[in-house]
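About this split. The held-out portion is used to measure sequence recovery: a designer receives only the structure tokens and must propose an amino acid at every position. Recovery is the fraction of positions where the proposal matches the reference. Here is one held-out target exactly as it appears in the evaluation file.
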């Protein structure tokens, strides 16, 4: 197994950050093997999604999360900015992991699929992402 951790600066706004290029760069170090790419975010307030980006789906996802998890005072988890408790519920809906098949060193994603970090936590501007390759 090969593994690597990178840092992503998400800033102080909600974001869907496309990690596909970073995934491809990491897979470049494993040669042309088949296997599984596992992506993990070791944070209690972020998740990973496989979705289309750039055509509005990323903004639609953030809008849907704002509808499902409003940033208001309903949350019992109270520290941080207003509504921060919702960020701690996010990983139950957008899990902190994603696994993608790898064929001949390339992710077997669909035409419009991207691997994305979903971060609604405006209080934590830097995220760690772990890539692990498990040979097949």
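Reference sequence for scoring:
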């Amino acid at each position: 197994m090969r593994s690597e951790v990178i840092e992503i600066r998400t800033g102080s706004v909600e974001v869907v950050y496309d990690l596909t290029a970073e995934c491809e760069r990491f897979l470049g170090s494993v040669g042309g093997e088949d296997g599984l790419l596992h992506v993990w975010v070791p944070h209690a307030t972020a998740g990973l999604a496989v979705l289309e980006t750039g055509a509005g789906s990323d903004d639609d996802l953030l809008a849907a999360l704002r509808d499902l998890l409003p940033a208001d005072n309903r949350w019992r988890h109270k520290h941080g900015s207003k509504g921060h408790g919702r960020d701690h519920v996010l990983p139950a809906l957008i899990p902190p992991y994603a696994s993608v098949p790898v064929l001949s060193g390339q992710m077997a994603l669909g035409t419009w699929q991207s691997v994305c970090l979903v971060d609604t936590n405006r209080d934590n501007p830097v995220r760690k992402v772990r890539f692990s390759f498990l040979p097949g």
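Annotator remark: The radius of gyration is 16 Å.
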